[in-house]
Amino acid sequence: MVTQATLARPATEAEAARGGSSFSRVRVVWIASSCLLALCILGSLAVGPTGVSLTSLPDAIAGAWAGDGRPETLVLLKLRLPRLLLGAFVGAALTLSGTIMQGLFRNPLADPGLIGVSSGAALAAVAWIALGSALAAPVVKVLGVYALPIAAFAGGLATTYVLVAIAQRSGTLVTGTLLLAGVAISAFSGALTGLVAYSSDDRELRDLTLWSMGSLSGANWDKVLAVTPFVVLLAVMLPRSVRALNGLLLGEAEAFHLGVNVDAEKRRCVLLTALATGAAVAVAGIVGFVGIVIPHLVRLLVGPDHRHVLPLGAIIGAALVLCGDIAARMLVRPGELPLGLVLAVVGAPLFLHLVINRQAAEG
């Protein structure tokens, strides 16, 4: 006799098989992503125009451990290692920002630039580079290496508060208004950035131009120290938003009924975006496509669950920036290409490919 339990068993087994297959795929992506990051770390330490090569890397590491002063050891400690750490941070921070924005807006095309956070941070950093040495010398003297990251974060945070003030109605943050206001503020910040660049002298204009293209060429331990507090804050605050981001995927009303404080989580998400974007912009300049391509790619690989999307995005984003930085160092050596240009050349076709495949799958 065919009972209801018998009829239900195949479906249950099929669901279990699908769940096991999904878990297996996620595990494979985790392993592959970790191996990719490890290879990029090795390449970042071993590849460059001078000093340390792949064959001499073990001796340089041994020398660093022993504390000797050989040239290879100094290149590894003073140049390659801080550049590696900053590149990994920039890639992870931009990817996390894009992931948060896409989860908040439920739109795979969203990124920090969409609501003007990147533009606000860039405007503050550009103004600081062009005007800080003359108008804010006492502040620079007090803050030291933290001056530029704090300025960029303050610019992103100020933009965030303006957006929240515009988009808030009766204590509720209206996402559509936030998006439209962000587009307007982004255009306004871009115009002011151009005005600051136009009024700069030749030296400042050259610095601003190179900075706007994105680069890790100025990496040092002072900059690593400057972004360390931002890394700690992200590590502490971000895990608390995973459940809320998963709830928001269903819609704001559904998230509210699941117990998510929607307005508070929106503010937290925008604050996290300002935090990560401001710090990344401060140390590397304008680096595009990382925050929009990598979250989209990770969701295609493992699905929308932010328990996997956030950490995997950080790993793959860090690997992408490190890989782009290796190419920037090697393509025109002993010179160096801007990192932002390299990632744009790679990221734009990749993003277009993902969009075309998504349309084909939905069609």
Care to give the gist of this entry?
This protein is mainly α and 363 residues long.
Distance between the termini: 43 Å
User: How many discrete domains?
Assistant: 1
Average pLDDT = 79
Tally of individual helices: 15
Low-confidence stretches: 1-18
Oligomer: single chain
Based on CA atoms alone, the radius of gyration comes out at: 22 Å
CATH superfamily (homologous) name: ABC transporter involved in vitamin B12 uptake, BtuC
| Order of SSEs | HHHHHHEEHHHHHHHHH
Strand content is under 5%
> What is the architecture at the second tier of CATH?
Orthogonal Bundle
Sheet with most strands: strand arrangement: 1-2
Give the beta-strand count.
Answer: 2
How helix-rich are the residues, as a percent range? over 70%
Give the CA-based shape: globular
The CATH topology corresponds to ABC transporter involved in vitamin B12 uptake, BtuC
Question: What is the structural class?
Answer: mainly alpha
Instruction: Please outline the major beta sheet.
Output: 2 strands, antiparallel
Provide a descriptive summary of the structure in words.
This protein is mostly helical. The protein has one domain: ABC transporter involved in vitamin B12 uptake, BtuC. It has 15 helices and two strands. It has helices at residues 4-46, 57-66, 71-105, 117-135, 137-143, 147-167, 175-198, 202-212, 221-237, 242-248, 252-257, 262-284, 290-302, 306-330, 339-362, and strands at residues 168-169, 172-173. It has a two-stranded antiparallel sheet with strand order 1-2. A hairpin with a 2-residue loop joins strand 1 (168-169) and strand 2. Helix 4 (117-135) packs parallel to helix 7, helix 4 packs antiparallel against helix 8 and helix 13 (290-302) packs across helix 14. Mean pLDDT is 79; it is low at 1-18.
